[in-house]
Amino acid sequence: MNASFLYIADRGGLKIYRVEDHVPRLLEFFPVDDAKGRWRDHLTDKAGGFPAGKTAGHGNSTAERLRLEAETDMRCLRKIATRLCESLDEHIDVGWSFAAPSELNGAILDGLPDRYRSRLVQSLRADLLNTTEDELATHFDLHAVPNH
């Protein structure tokens, strides 16, 4: 199976490319807003605001919450994975390739159902979101991709 689509992700979003004449052409950029913005928009005075019920007052520690960075990463990964699955559902029975930085690559791909992973042609652990279309072609094996 050959890759007809390339999906390139990082914390800032997901780019979807269709491979035409052995060259990736950008179809969509799906930005993830949680990855950017001002810290004051993310930080509130509600840390530890959950009820302390039956914890003798020890349930209100901010240490029991995930760090803001980890929470933001999880939200970003979920949004990226959701959009990736939606796109793969739109293009059934075609191969696809994927690239994301090493710390995100496995986290995104491991959470995908087998029906998507079975069509995965190539996966790169690389941050290629800001790579040009011509440069992307050098990172992926596109020589055998049929023209659509």
Automatic annotation (TrEMBL):
Alphabetical list of Pfam families matching this protein: Host_attach
Organism domain of life: Bacteria
InterPro entries, sorted: Host_attachment_protein
The protein's name in its UniProt record: Protein required for attachment to host cells
Organism: Terrimicrobium sacchariphilum
